[in-house]
From TrEMBL:
InterPro entries: Exonuc_VII_S (IPR003761), Exonuc_VII_ssu_sf (IPR037004)
HAMAP family assigned to the protein according to its UniProt record, in alphabetical order: Exonuc_7_S
Protein name (database record): Exodeoxyribonuclease 7 small subunit
Keywords for the protein's UniProt record, in alphabetical order: Cytoplasm, Exonuclease, Hydrolase, Nuclease
Cellular compartments annotated: Cytoplasm
Function summary: Bidirectionally degrades single-stranded DNA into large acid-insoluble oligonucleotides, which are then degraded further into small acid-soluble oligonucleotides.
Top class in the EC scheme: hydrolase
Gene3D superfamilies attached to this UniProt entry: Exonuclease VII, small subunit
Organism this protein belongs to: Sphingopyxis terrae subsp. ummariensis
Length: 99
């Protein structure tokens, strides 16, 4: 299945629809990806898109969801918890999720 570039996009000589879409999604912030994902969900729920467009939207939505999950996992890994000593005072930090 070959798709055409979305409005405002073009594919170079070495890009395929999949690599162009992956690069496009990788450049999105979490908020931008979520916003686009919400738009895709609304369009699919409306039932006003063709089968081909529905499949293309579903595929992009799936990639956007994976991107958002990866961004969330990266953010979670960066969060640190403050550890408290016996006296109740901060005793340093440790990565999120460590006992």
């Amino acid at each position: 299945m070959t798709a055409a570039p979305l409005a405002g996009q073009s594919w170079g000589m070495t890009e395929t629809p999949d690599t162009a879409a992956a690069a496009d999604i990788a450049a999105l912030s979490f908020e931008a990806a979520m916003g686009e994902l919400e738009t895709i969900v609304r369009r699919l729920e409306s039932g006003d898109v063709s089968l081909e467009e529905s499949v293309a939207l579903y595929e992009r939505g799936h990639a956007l969801r994976a991107h958002c999950e990866a961004r969330l996992a990266a953010a979670q890994a960066r969060i640190e918890q403050v550890g408290l000593g016996a006296d109740g005072q901060p005793a340093g930090t440790k990565p999120f999720g460590e006992g």
